[in-house]
Structure formats: structure tokens, C-alpha cells
Amino acid sequence: MACFARHGDGDRIVGSALCFDCYDYAGQVVWNLEVPELWRRTTIAMTRYLNRLCRDRGVPSWTVIAPDGSERTMAPFRLTFNKVAEYQARGAVHLHAVIRLDGFHPDQPDTELPPPAGLDVDDLVHAIATAAATTAFQTRSHPVKPEGFCITWGDPHKGTEVRPVKTDAQGNVDLSSAYYLSKYATKSTEVTGHHSGRLDAETIDLYADSEGTHTERLIDACWRLGQPREWRRLRKAAHMLGFAGHFLTKSRRHHVTFRLLRNRRVVYTRTVSTGPDAGQLVEPPTTLAINFLEFVGSGWRSEADAMLANTSAALAREYQQAAQAELATFAL
Questions:
Q1: Are 93 and 116 in contact (CB under 8 A)?
Q2: What Rg, from alpha-carbon coordinates, does the chain have?
Q3: In terms of Cα–Cα distance, which of 23, 26, 22, 30 is closest to 151?
Q4: Which residues contact 302 (CB under 8 A, 6 or more apart)?
Q5: pLDDT value at position 289?
Q6: What separation in angstroms does the CA of 264 have from each of 176, 180, 270?
Q7: What are the tens digits of pLDDT across the range 214-273?
Q8: Quick check: 79 and 123 in contact, CB under 8 A?
Q9: What's the pLDDT at 303?
Q10: 315 or 188, greater pLDDT
Q11: How many angstroms separate the CA atoms of 98 and 131, rounded?
Q12: Phi and psi for 144 in degrees, rounded to 5?
């Protein structure tokens, strides 16, 4: 099926299924739930691919003696990444990542080193493409799908795009990749037309409908599939259409940390950007606040306020007692 009409940016039909009865809503929400695990397995596949290249090309690995006296072999490279999760209009999560290939030395684990001579950017591109094309796994069994759901990246020729980050003659890195990630980091479920907090049994009927819109059917699929205890995460992530991960993640050894970014923001806000003292770190202005607290009294300010409060409390007690009696009658 296909739609050849041109839709505007504000058209709510954009992203909806062409055939509601044919669309695999269960498969999409489970894929959203399991995409962090799929990404973890993909990074492992990339590392194994590069390890095979090192062995085939004779790139030496590092041998480290563990405290217990055993020997441990370590790869001469390290993969680091920054990853952003973006919602498409149809409610599926789309990943954008910047992946680095660095060298590794066991005596300098925190030092940025160039990759070994036997590996280059083309090898990294092939490692990413191969891992995306071959990584797949089956989820645990579910009552509606006893064999489990197949989680994979889909068509490798259409769903994966790898762009090497380039540098100019002076060695400056092209920042377009950073702008690329920051653009998608601002998107959330609002692009699908849905925005709410975490849903529960009292609020799920406001957003879920098995016969409703595309987004309402996705939320309904999360709630239905999340009924078994081992699949309860789907209900917790129903407001995120099944995606329970963080929108921005990075590898543990990435050279840019969140603490570094926070410190940079603090320095930026405290630095004069214009004027004769441009670029100089200045102290923020001090605001002197004088507060004086005095005890005025306790209780209601008038008899009318006290009567209104007591009447409201009595009505609340009567309502609670009536509700308990109704539940007891229903149970009998």
C-alpha cells in the first residue's frame, strides 16, 4: 500500500498506518522496549568484527597480568560513542550515534590515543554496517507470541546510514555531526501527537484505544502486552510508546562526560561575552536577601472557615464510608 498525497507538517495523519488492521502494533512497541539491548549487542558485534580484523592483519594485542596471576588479552583499540534516540512520526524510535575508534594502552587507560596502524575509518564504517546487518535476537516468550519477538535493525540497505566525520587541512573536526545530534535530541513523543506523564490504571483509558488513532493503538498495545509480570516494563513505558531507555547515552569511557558539559555551561554563564572584559571569568552578582519571620497564630482565622472545613471533612467521611459499604456489598 502507498499514499501519494502531499501532507503538511501540521497534518495529524502523518505517521499513521495505511491499514490499521494490518499494522504490527505489538511488534513496534516491543521493538521500542528492546532497542537498548539491540544497541548493546550491536556494539559487541562491532568490537568482535574489529578484533577479527586485528588478528587477520597481525595487529598485536595487549597481554595484562591480573591480580590473581592469570593472563588477560586486551584489544589494541577502543570504541566510544554518543547516541541519541529520536521518535519518528509513526512512533518508532530512531537512533543517531557518533562512534569513535581510538587506540588503547593498558598503562594509559584514560588517555586518548590514535587507533592502531592496521585500522582506519573505512574499517570502522564496515564494522558498523556489518553489525547492523547481522545483529538480531529473540525476546522471551509472550502469551500472544510464544516463540518471542524477533528484534533486528530491519533492511540493512535502507535502515542504516554511516557517514565518516571529516576534518579540514588544519585538523579541525567538522561540527555538522554535533549539530546533527543536537537537532534530534530536542524531539520527543510530541512529534507523534502524544504527550503525557506515566500512565496507570486510572489514566490509561484517556490515551489508549484499540480502535482509535495510531498513537492510541500503540499505547493500548503497551498496556495489553504488559499484563504478564515479566513484561510489566511495557506498562511503565506506555506513555513513551514502549521505549524505556534514555534519550541520550554514551559509552563509559567516552572522553566527554556529563560532568564536563555541566562545568562548561557554568563557565560559559559566568564568562563575559561582550565588552572590554570579554573572555574573563567573573563572579556572579551577590543578592542580599533579608527575611523576618514572626509567628502569627494557628487554627482557622474565623468561625466560618472552621465550619466550612468541618463540613467538608464530614462529607468526605460519609463518602468514604458509603464507598466501603458499596464495595463490601459488591464482594458479597
A1: no
A2: 28
A3: 30
A4: none
A5: 60
A6: 20, 20, 10
A7: 999 999 999 999 999 999 999 999 999 999 888 888 887 776 666 777 787 777 777 755
A8: no
A9: 85
A10: 315
A11: 15
A12: -85, -10
Place of cell 505489538: 26
d(CA 40, CA 60): 26
CA distance 225 to 242: 10
**Measured distance between the N- and C-terminal CA atoms of the chain, rounded to whole angstroms:** 54
Q: Are 160 and 153 in contact (CB under 8 A)?
A: yes
Residue 214 is inside which H or E element, if any?
helix 214-225
C-alpha cell at 41: 549487542
What are the residues whose beta carbons fall under 8 Å from the beta carbon of 101, sequence distance 6 or more?
Answer: 50, 77, 78, 79, 115, 119, 121, 123, 124
Give me the numbers of helices (H) and strands (E) for the chain, helices first please: 9, 7
Rounded-to-integer distance, Cα 155 and Cα 169, Å: 36
Residue with cell 586486551: 74
Q: Which cell numbers in the block locate residue 192?
A: 507523534
Report which secondary-structure segment, H or E, holds 179.
Answer: helix 176-184
pLDDT at position 189 over 90: no
* Nearest in space to 35 (alpha carbons), one of 122, 135, 120: 135
150-159: Cβ within 8 A, 24+ apart: 151/30, 151/31, 151/34, 151/35, 151/37, 151/38, 152/38, 153/38, 153/42, 156/129, 156/132, 159/132
Determine the residue type at 41: R
Determine the pLDDT at residue 70. 82
